[in-house]
Amino acid sequence: MSISAFFMMLGYMVICSFTPGPGNILALNTTTQFGWRKGKRLIWGICAGYVCVQIICTLAVYGLNSFLTPVLDVLKYVGGIYMVWLAIQIFKSKPLNADNEGKASFREGFSLQFVNVKIYFYIMTLLMIYLIPYISTLPGLLFAGVGVVGIGSIACLTWAFLGLKIQTLYKKHHKLINFILSLFLLYCAWDIIRG
């Protein structure tokens, strides 16, 4: 891989990982509501789900390249519907009092990644355009996936950190912040469904 191709790939990875998407928005929303201590299980779930989706996508692209298009067509609608539901939940959510015993589960974060169509398209595009032309072995592609997961996890943690920083602001302006986050998710859903 040439240096220019590497930097193009790195730019693609950073832009796709750090732009708003379901995982990043949920990480931000979770830490604004629960703080790090109660929200970290969900954040780790998002990161673990990312690892599983990376492996699934790598195996799929490596072994089933010609059959992927119909699966992705169905997944975009399932993911779009889930994103709309998530946007509604965020819009309706309120700041928690110290007395409230809210939950942010590992399972919720982990499960999100399996319907997060953004990362399927991102990972498969990355594999097909940037990695497969240069790496022809499955172990090599899986090893390259470590970098992909690393950048994605750093992005998720960055959004979670932003959530911690705006926690006080969130308590005062939760309706506006939830509205904005919900709009981002609705836009993500629309963008994925329209193709």
Question: What key phrases describe this protein's structure?
Answer:
LeuE-type, 195 residues, transmembrane, 7 helices, mainly alpha
Which structural class do you get from the secondary structure elements? mainly alpha
Q: Describe the main β-sheet briefly.
A: none
Low-confidence stretches: none
Number of domains: 1
Shape: globular
The amount of beta strand, in percent, is under 5%
The overall strand count is 0
The termini sit apart by 29 Å
- Into which percent range does the helicity of residues fall? over 70%
Order of helices and strands: HHHHHHH
Give the C-alpha Rg: 17 Å
GO molecular function: amino acid transmembrane transporter activity
Organism: Clostridium felsineum
GO cellular component, one term: plasma membrane
Keywords: Cell membrane, Membrane, Plasmid, Transmembrane, Transmembrane helix
